[in-house]
Amino acid sequence: MDWKKAQVKESNLVDIPNRWLHLYYYEALNVLFRFENSLRVFVYTVLKDELKDKWQETAISGGCIKSETKKRIRQSDEYGYLGYEITSPMLFLNSGELIDIIVSDAYWKYFAKYFKASKSIVVTKLQEIGTVRNSLAHFRPIKEDDIDLIKQNTKHVLLEVEKALVKITSISALVPTNSEEPWYLKLRGLGSENINLSLFHCEDEKWIRLCFSYKVPTLEKRKISEDFYTYKVGNLRTIEVLRNFQEIRNNCIYITDSTIYGQLNAEFDIASRKEFNVVISKRNLTESLDNIEASIRNIITMVDEETELLKTDNLARGVLVDTQHGNAIVKTGNNNTRYWQVSLDTLKCDPSKVSDVEYWGTRGNYVTDFVSATSQYPWMPSSISDEDSPF
């Protein structure tokens, strides 16, 4: 058997062997992969917002999400040496089960507002996509015309779904300081010298993003040379917020980290901040406001106490704050300009080691094209494509 390989040539042109499958098979795979994973994110978001910590009790054939996906995860672990280790229950639901959840008599009331068609038409279009999907998944031949059908049906069915997903992943407007919203008045003054809170909402104010910004403390600094420093720094463990503050976990849709930018101050101490974001619906925030406020106050208090502990004993470790290492080295750029490159990679959370479904990795914005352009979905430990060039 001579399994010929594709060859990447100049300008990223790819030479595909003639004996490979027709190109439209790969287009079908791309569309169906993105359709199914976008549907997963959507179904989870709606269920979590409506049912909170009971979302995994959603019924599917054979039981509920929690019981059935536990079995599948356990079966997958038997072949753990293959592929990535996946722990999110949502990635173990297939498109047929996702569709059944959406159109079921019990849950349609939660999903209906996201579709510009009657339930019967939505069912038909989703089933047509599923038919092509099953043919490809079971290696039966498909027609080139099938690609047009799944693209058109995906566009029709996910039109409002995509708008909802873009909205929840692109919350960037600061809440006006003169807002009279009760939740804003209660939360706006929270913070300390070590950690502060910024409040954002989406355009229709349905979704709220609570952005916590932690001032990374320099606990120990060693000058190795004029061009190289090493550091021991404090690190806020985002995932432990989920695990130790049930009120936050139960009510939020997801938590993400923001990209960490390494910076130095005039004394060559670390001058960076680590941010994490909690996204929650305004409805759930309002309904549980007192408990969520109490949780935020407790987070701030714990961060303050543990940060001060680490400043006096950098061998200690807190629940939310631990110590990590970093370094700074002088690099030479264009025109022989010299600059400091600060590495704080140890502060990043490895998503492949996190099983909490509310943790979505590093925050990204999907301005218009969540379904067809996302380079990395929640719960996946790696990207599935390169990011689109803006040009």
Can you tell me about this structure?
With 391 residues, this protein is an alpha+beta fold. The protein folds into 2 domains: 7-169, no CATH class; 173-363, no CATH class. Helices cover 39% and strands 20% of the residues. It is built from 13 helices and 14 strands. The chain has helices at 23-51, 65-77, 95-103, 108-111, 119-137, 144-157, 159-169, 182-187, 238-244, 246-251, 282-287, 289-312, 370-373; strands at 7-8, 14-15, 59-60, 63-64, 173-174, 195-201, 207-215, 218-225, 228-236, 254-257, 273-281, 321-332, 338-343, 359-362. The strands form 4 sheets. Strands 5-6-7-11-10-14 form a 6-stranded mixed sheet. Strands 8-9-12-13 form a 4-stranded antiparallel sheet, with helices on one face. The relative contact order is 0.12.
H/E series: EEHEEHHHHHHEHEEEEHHEEHHEEEH
In helices, the fraction of residues equals 25-40%
Please mark out the parts with pLDDT under 50 across 5 or more consecutive residues, or reply none: none
- How far apart, in Å, are the first and last alpha carbons? 42 Å
Q: What does the main sheet amount to? A: 6 strands, mixed
Nearest-integer average pLDDT: 92
Per the principal axes of the C-alpha atoms, what is the gross shape?
Answer: globular
The proportion of residues in beta strands is 15-25%
Number of domains: 2
Structural class: alpha+beta
Please tally the helical runs, counting DSSP H or I stretches of 4 or more residues.
13
What does the radius of gyration come to?
A: 24 Å
Spatial strand arrangement across the major sheet = 5-6-7-11-10-14
Number of strands: 14
